[in-house]
Amino acid sequence: MEEEDAAADPYLPYDGGGDTIPLQEIPRRGSNYAMSNGGGAASSTTHLLDFLEEPIPGVGTYDDFHTIDWVREKCKDRERHRKINSKKKESAWEFTKSLYDAWSGWLVVTLTGLASGALAGLIDIAADWMNDLKEGVCLSAMWFNHEQCCWTSNETTFAERDKCPQWKSWAELILGQAEGPGSYIMNYFMYIYWALSFAFLAVCLVKVFAPYACGSGIPEIKTILSGFIIRGYLGKWTLMIKTITLVLAVASGLSLGKEGPLVHVACCCGNIFSYLFPKYSKNEAKKREVLSAASAAGVSVAFGAPIGGVLFSLEEVSYYFPLKTLWRSFFAALVAAFVLRSINPFGNSRLVLFYVEYHTPWYLFELIPFILLGVFGGLWGAFFIRANIAWCRRRKSTRFGKYPVLEVILVAAITAVVAFPNPYTRQNTSELIKELFTDCGPLESSQLCQYRSQMNGSTAYTDNPNQPAEPGVYSAMWQLCLALIFKIIMTIFTFGLKVPSGLFIPSMAIGAIAGRIVGIAMEQLAYYHHDWFLFKEWCEVGADCITPGLYAMVGAAACLGGVTRMTVSLVVIVFELTGGLEYIVPLMAAVMTSKWVGDAFGREGIYEAHIRLNGYPFLDAKEEFTHTTLARDVMRPRSSDPPLAVLTQDDLTVEELQGVINETSYNGFPVIVSKESQRLVGFALRRDITIAIENARRKQEGIMLNSRVYFTQHAPTLPADSPRPLKLRSILDMSPFTVTDHTPMEIVVDIFRKLGLRQCLVTHNGRLLGIITKKDILRHMAQMANQDPESIMFN
């Protein structure tokens, strides 16, 4: 992939190179400064102010686009917890503080759940209203959508239940006529006008106010939960703009969903509320526990599936998931679902628009078409990932990517022009899924349910769907085939646009269309060939054997599984959608088949592929490292590199230290006893050194450019006229992780994954040899997979 200037694309963050490794040697002091680990002379230490015994503001924090140190954050939290426990018996106030600290985790997830549920309800209501605005307006009450407008009307008929005098199409309002070519053209024009208006407004708001509000957000949230810092990605501006533009993007009719972005919205809520509690605001690792719970709440309100949300957080997005996070995720998902149920955005007492219930059993023979739908889902997932990544890479490497507004307008215009003539692409994708999932019954007026009664040959909407199909069903099948092709093509170009765009709903729609087509085909096969041995045993003539809606549901799960490679959480989400426990086996068969077929073409899901495309430093726990390389093969410096940059424990001045920091962009430096011994003392972070020096100059008198810097417990022996030395021992990590040069890389990769390390030092017989960072491991893994090591790194 070509390197590109980060400034060229306002949507891409700039990486400060925080995890790159030191490769430059530091100049050494002259021999007139003798080193000593003992205390200095009384004259030189009596006036020494060890200001660093107090914590320095800013030390222990992280720069943007850097990785957190999980081990250090956990140690900080344990220390804070011990301090609170030791003080709680001193007074009633301290005891109250300890109670507040213990309950703050439950409070923050409660607030997150409340906010996520309320925002999801608001988004659902607003998106429904704006979606119907493309077709017409309710004269009796402007704020009603089409369905609500006709609720109170007494003039609707069974066949045309969505037509009522209160609802006027744009042709009726502007031309005064409801039928004819003129009204069709006017409605067509207004549909395109509103679609382009919504899309243009959405992309402009994202570009001007919150560039991070684009996309689904799940790849970035996975990266953030793995310990990466992206400042502003979960901020209040991103939350506000994402909520508004998500409604606009869904209403514009683009082939996208709101379910993925709802996870981002919930995580924004979790991040904002965590700042109210010092336990979470001052500890990046603890904050990620709240974000894990928030992502569970996001899926809970997206699908009305609280348990599925918890499993999604565990299986798909979380990096560190202790048991208490599981309980809090469950509670956050419960609160969010309760709030959304109280709002009742769809007026059906359900949390989602396409909730269905099936009452007919499935038969063993039907596993064959279910597995075939799984194969289709896996093939679609593999094809979509490759096509979408190729298009996104092309967007990044060509001039086309510099005009995000034009791209959105172009895709929205093509979508609107092609979608309007076909009723299945014109309607909201969630409504399409609802229609495809729904079983044919006496209350259904869909074209898919036009069956001819056997008794008198007249058209009737019967309870028994196993009848010969009417011409309306065949025309609906053709329209569904065209809708399938349209959705497949447009979803590839839509996911990755600079507007909020989820992938769950379009993938489910593609699978539901394919499933419904297979379901109707099976149903008609059973009707016309009921004497075949396949059907004879279990399907009597005229019996209700095949449920096409069930096939649509299985197809939707298979396609979503093929794209995301989710398994357990996906089955539970779909099971919670339908409330049918007996359909778990068909769902499991289809989802596992789709995963196996997809994995045969590439083991990455769409989110991992986008993480790799953006070059985020993410070590995927699902990816196995099977190579036989050793730590010395990966560590820096290599034989062709300059010597490793190190700091000596008491042989540098402030000027020399600042010179090193100004000349390099490294994230930290190993500290050694001396250049001769190369014995390791610890590791000091660049940011902490800079903050400590600035703080010392403000608070300490006598700190000059030629002041000695020491990392030991006691000051070195100095001449009497020397300026005051600067003690930096408290910012030194005395227990950095080390491996020997013969440690297999398989173990090193495992250590990085399980402990969340930023860097690891390499030694030989106790002497420092080199350093391995997270980015070195990612480069090495890319090299082993025959990829360009630099192409995967974030520029």
Automatic annotation (TrEMBL):
Supply the PANTHER family for this chain. Answer: CHLORIDE CHANNEL PROTEIN, H(+)_CL(-) EXCHANGE TRANSPORTER 3
Tell me the keywords, alphabetical order.
Antiport, ATP-binding, CBS domain, Cell membrane, Chloride, Endosome, Glycoprotein, Ion transport, Lysosome, Membrane, Nucleotide-binding, Repeat, Transmembrane, Transmembrane helix, Transport
Q: What does UniProt give as GO cellular component?
A: early endosome membrane; Golgi apparatus; late endosome membrane; lysosomal membrane; plasma membrane; synaptic vesicle
Subcellular location per UniProt equals: Cell membrane; Early endosome membrane; Late endosome membrane; Lysosome membrane
Q: Which domain of life is it from?
A: Eukaryota
Q: What is the lineage of its organism?
A: Eukaryota, Metazoa, Chordata, Craniata, Vertebrata
Instruction: List the Gene Ontology MF annotations in alphabetical order.
Output: ATP binding; chloride:proton antiporter activity; voltage-gated chloride channel activity
Question: Where does the record place the CBS domain?
Answer: 635-701, 732-790
Would the keyword Repeat turn up in this protein's UniProt record?
yes
Under which name does UniProt file this protein?
Answer: Chloride channel protein
Keyword Heme attributed: no
What topology does it adopt in the membrane?
Multi-pass membrane protein
Gene3D superfamilies xref list: 3.90.1280.20, Clc chloride channel (1.10.3080.10)
Species in which this protein is naturally found? Poecilia reticulata
Q: Which InterPro entries match?
A: CBS_dom, CBS_dom_sf, Cl-channel_core, ClC, ClC3
- Could you list the residue ranges that cross the membrane? 103-123, 191-213, 233-254, 261-278, 290-314, 363-385, 405-424, 476-497, 509-530, 550-575
- Family indicated by similarity: Belongs to the chloride channel (TC 2.A.49) family. ClC-3/CLCN3 subfamily.
User: What does the protein in this record do?
Assistant: Strongly outwardly rectifying, electrogenic H(+)/Cl(-)exchanger which mediates the exchange of chloride ions against protons. The CLC channel family contains both chloride channels and proton-coupled anion transporters that exchange chloride or another anion for protons. The presence of conserved gating glutamate residues is typical for family members that function as antiporters.
